[in-house]
Amino acid sequence: MASKTKHDFFDGQKQIDEIDKQFQTLQILNEDGEVVNDQMVPDLTDEQLQDLMHRMVYTRILDQRSISLNRQGRLGFYAPTAGQEASQIASQFALEKEDFILPGYRDVPQIIWHGLPLYQAFLFSRGHFQGNQIPDGVNVISPQIIIGAQYIQAAGVALGMKKRGLKSVVITYTGDGGSSQGDFYEGINFAGALKVPAIFIVQNNGFAISTPVEKQSSAKTIAQKAVAAGIPGYQVDGMDPFAVYAAVRKARERAINGEGPTLIETLCYRYGPHTMAGDDPTRYRTSDLDNEWEKKDPLVRFRKFLEKKGLWTEEMEKEVIEKAKQDIKEAIKKADETPKQKVTDLISIMHEDLPYNLKEQYEIYREKESK
Ligand SMILES: Cc1ncc(C[n+]2csc(CCOP(=O)(O)OP(=O)(O)O)c2C)c(N)n1
Ligand SMILES: [Mg+2]
């Protein structure tokens, strides 16, 4: 074994510096919508490029409308998404329908674009059980509220896929805060050990509610946490749809080829509050920081890129906005028309055969509800 001097062997700072150096941020499209990395531009058709823009614009409108609906008391739990469209939409865009999404509470847009009907996302927000009854063929589960917990589930679902020999992958999302949880490490560790087809995304928006990422970890990047699990980790500009798409596509290819999981950190920002439950971001973020990030906006840079190619116009944008508003109107109406949930509903959806104590309670509530 090569011997090191005592000084070298114990030079922990050098060890850390060497790892840090390996984690650069991938950017393909800069803030002005210019390609800065020709070789890595994803191979997408004009229609796909337009579709990606369509989805990001639509999602921004959905976010604005969801915030208003929440303020009107017409939605329940809601975690704003504006600023994270490239991280969310471009990562889902890189998947195939057979792939599975295990989302966190902020990842509702991805599961909608993967096939969850919008009215069910609204029912989920209201805590209605029908919001969690995912239609057959839509490969998503309900958003996880416990931060990081879906990382372990993702390792498990991916192991199931591997055992069945499926050519599909699992993608799961958490935030910078989630990457400080034990579940995060357990999930990536076993996914690595078992070489399962999983893609682990950390949307690093700089804050876990009010706690800045610098106070959560000494690691310079979250991507480098992959090293300890023996899997690749990439850090990408999470405001750049091309960088996110390219990284997820690469991770998917590795997973499908049996090469195992990948961790991807997307550097992004949420413009709004943490959730609509009373959080005030002005108490922990400066307007300078907000402005700095707004300049990096994913929609602005992608619009510039497409306009230069003659692939996007104001009229097209207006059409998307109108379509989004119309869909939202119809979906909220459908959610309103869904019968209110009853206690008997909650009891009866839990078990194939009810245990005796729930049978008793079921009868008590059936009686009450019939009055
Ligand atoms: C295990 C657990 N601990 C604490 C909470 C309360 N909590 C909800 S969101 C959150 C911060 C999460 O931050 P981050 O992972 O960065 O995601 P972001 O909200 O920024 O998308 C915390 C601490 C929780 N939901 N689950
Ligand atoms: Mg965060």
Automatic annotation (TrEMBL):
Record text on subunit structure and interactions: Heterodimer of an alpha and a beta chain.
Source superkingdom: Bacteria
Main function: The pyruvate dehydrogenase complex catalyzes the overall conversion of pyruvate to acetyl-CoA and CO(2). It contains multiple copies of three enzymatic components: pyruvate dehydrogenase (E1), dihydrolipoamide acetyltransferase (E2) and lipoamide dehydrogenase (E3).
Catalytic activity: N(6)-[(R)-lipoyl]-L-lysyl-[protein] + pyruvate + H(+) = N(6)-[(R)-S(8)-acetyldihydrolipoyl]-L-lysyl-[protein] + CO2
GO biological process entries: branched-chain amino acid catabolic process
SUPFAM superfamilies: Thiamin diphosphate-binding fold (THDP-binding)
EC number(s) reported in the record: 1.2.4.1
Gene: pdhA
Cofactors named for this entry: thiamine diphosphate
Alphabetical UniProt keywords: Oxidoreductase, Pyruvate, Thiamine pyrophosphate
GO molecular function terms listed in the Swiss-Prot or TrEMBL record: pyruvate dehydrogenase (acetyl-transferring) activity
Keyword Mitochondrion: no
Gene3D superfamilies: 3.40.50.970
Protein name: Pyruvate dehydrogenase E1 component subunit alpha
